[in-house]
Amino acid sequence: MSRQNGGLGRPAGSDQGAGRDLRALLSLVRPGMLALRAAGAPAPPPGRPLPFALRTPMVISAELHAQILRYYYVEKWRRGTIARQLGVHREVVARVIAQSGVPAPGAVQRPCRIDPYLPFILGTLETFPTLTAARLYDMVYERGYRGDRDHFRHMIARHRPRPKAEAYLRLRALPGEEAQVDWGHFGHLQVGRAQRPLMAFVMVLSHSRRVFLRFFLDARMDAFLEGHVRAFDAFGAVPRIVLYDNLKSAVLERQGAAIRFNPALLALAAHYRFEPRPVAVARGNEKGRVERAIRYIRDNFFAARVFKGLDDLNAQAMAWCEGPAADRPCPGEGMSVREAFALEAQRLAPLPDNPFPAATPHAASVGKTPYARFDRNDYSVPHTYVRRQLTVLADTCEVRILDGAALIARHPRSYDAGAQVEDPAHIEALRAHKRGARSASVTDQLAHAAPSSAELLARAADSGHSLQITVAGLNRLLQRYGARELEAAIREVLQTTGPAPHPNSVLLALEKRRERRKQPPLVGVELPKHVLDKDQPVRPARLAPYDKLKDQTDDDQ
């Protein structure tokens, strides 16, 4: 039998001849290995197995050595192709190429369809760096390019100029000199039928990193002003400069260095005697302290936070600002934020003696119904002010309606949508003034007290039930059980599948709810007719015809 030696397929001779051949082949391989070791080839890390070629060195002939080099450098074969065609291991081929000392040939640059259009593409991208690849493809296609659109997009990504990295200076602020303000968006809250954005007003003292945090259900001007007032009260003092970005609550218009501030912000700055200063356009790094503070709030306070409502969330935010946020290290000061603020508080300006009114005025037009609309809700006014232009003064808690300087209505603010916030005195005055107002508004009262009644009435009308009887029955249940219970019972009836809804089915649902709570059923009291008649309005007699008769009698005499 014959044995293979290095994939050469040459039969082994005598032991003496084999020894001579082995020594000759080793003389070819050993100098290359010594040259690699002398060149400082890195040793494999401990615990890692050696490569195959170094672990079991394969002795090859000079002829095979020359074939590997010729196929690689002249014929441009790949290493795997050489190993497969010559029947040797890939590591052997790699070792021979590495020992040759000849630099590896570079990749062959093949001509590409896009090459004739590269000067035009590069010039266009230099003038318009943000031009999309789709638009650039259309421009090149008009000039004769017929390559694939996806390939063209990859080529444009390779040739598109990259923006240069910008270096920034580290900004420092003196104690009591500066504060930074910004809004942060933290999702939405469902308030009744409205989905309100949950906005965080954040103010940070630039020197001590003291944080003030307050959540609002919008970012309107009244919330913006109230955030400043509460922040200054929490700090017990006022910084000399407050930095903003170019939001509309601070800057109405800007042309270079010419800035037109919001008049409400100027009034606030005049009251607290600080300087409002907007940063440059698209330069958020100039107020990086408040940007980092919002990220810190998002990760360390709001993440996985459980709260029952806006008031509970603000109470937790205040406790967090006074606790963990004040005990964190102050960057660059070697102390905590609490200690740095204690030193900075001595350099802040004092608060003014009188408070600042944070309510902002809004014009409201009252139509033929006595309601002024503000922030997607209607607020009642006396019926004598219909068809008038009024002024709404709103803050985060209260809505006041004025006619000139006279206060005509005051309501708690609602963040619902489509709600009618009414003063009972306004409605009673209108009913006393206008005959039949009560009977005409029964359906509207029912719809506002139980919004689901509108769907129940629609289904009852589709089934042929009398709407008048249905409305009267639901109104009796409203007077007897209340708006909340009626709304819950109507929803239960609408969720059931069966015959068309009826006031009796709503009554059954109401009684079942009371039974589940182990409450006794309500007992109706029937009053006699003469008692009910006492509550009927009495229409006063018109005396004008009698005056006319008296005048005629005087003329006859």
CATH superfamily placement of the domain at 178-347: Ribonuclease H-like superfamily/Ribonuclease H
In what order do the strands lie side by side in the largest sheet?
3-2-1-4-7
Strand content: 15-25%
CATH topology of the domain at 178-347: Nucleotidyltransferase, domain 5
Unreliable residue stretches:
1-20, 22-56
- Average pLDDT, rounded to a whole number, is 82
Largest sheet: 5 strands, mixed
Q: What's the β-strand tally?
A: 16
What does this entry look like structurally?
The protein has 557 residues and is an alpha+beta fold. Among the domains are: 15-100, no CATH class; 115-159, no CATH class; 178-347, 2-Layer Sandwich (Nucleotidyltransferase, domain 5); 446-525, no CATH class. The chain has 23 helices and 16 strands. It has helices at 15-38, 52-55, 62-73, 79-86, 90-100, 118-127, 133-142, 149-159, 221-235, 263-272, 288-302, 310-322, 324-327, 337-344, 424-433, 437-440, 442-449, 453-462, 467-481, 483-495, 503-516, 529-533, 544-556; strands at 178-191, 194-205, 211-216, 241-244, 251-255, 258-261, 275-278, 329-330, 335-336, 360-366, 371-374, 377-380, 388-394, 398-403, 406-412, 420-421. The protein has a 5-stranded mixed sheet, sandwiched between helices. Strands 10-13-14-15 form a 4-stranded antiparallel sheet, with no helix packed on it. Strand 1 and strand 2 (194-205) form a beta hairpin. Helix 3 crosses helix 5 (90-100), helix 19 (467-481) runs parallel beside helix 21 (503-516) and helix 20 (483-495) crosses helix 21. The longest helix is centred in the N-terminal third of the chain and has 24 residues, at 15-38. It is elongated and about 140 Å long.
